[in-house]
Amino acid sequence: MKKYIDNNLGLVFPQPVLIGGVIFIVMGLLVMFEIWYFGILMMVLGLYVVLGVNGARIDVEGRRFKSYSKWLWIRSGQWKSMDPYPYVSVLGKQIGLTLASRGNRTMDVGEITYTVCLLSSTHRAKVIIRAEDTRRAAEKYAVYIAERLGKEVVQYAPEISVQTRERNMRRR
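and the corresponding structure tokens:
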């Protein structure tokens, strides 16, 4: 078995910024024929934006993990112990936006993505270790990673403190 489990969590920058990065690369190519150093600088900045990736790396034998950002094979992030995270869970997350027209009509466009997370004992702290498109794939991966790491798969249910319960009762 492999010592490390690597999971790609997606790009660092959102799509409009990525389009700007591609434009910088193309403009850098064009400018490079006139002012070579400025063209190279524009291309490097564009590549920096386009090639950034977020991920999670798990050291199974060392019982630690690292949430990282990666640019051109260079990962930046710190290793942390998995001991404070005894549980694994699947969380649904809606990603979307609202479109509005001049006639004040709105339309919500969105999709649900499912994340596999390490959870603390109170479920307040969580670390995303994988993102999946379907709930079935996320649950399958959660069972796999829980077996590999010796953790328990649980339903996400954070503890509500007494102070929060009292505040909620006053609002009703």
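(Above: one complete record from the training split.) The helical segments are 15-31, 36-50, 135-149, 162-171.
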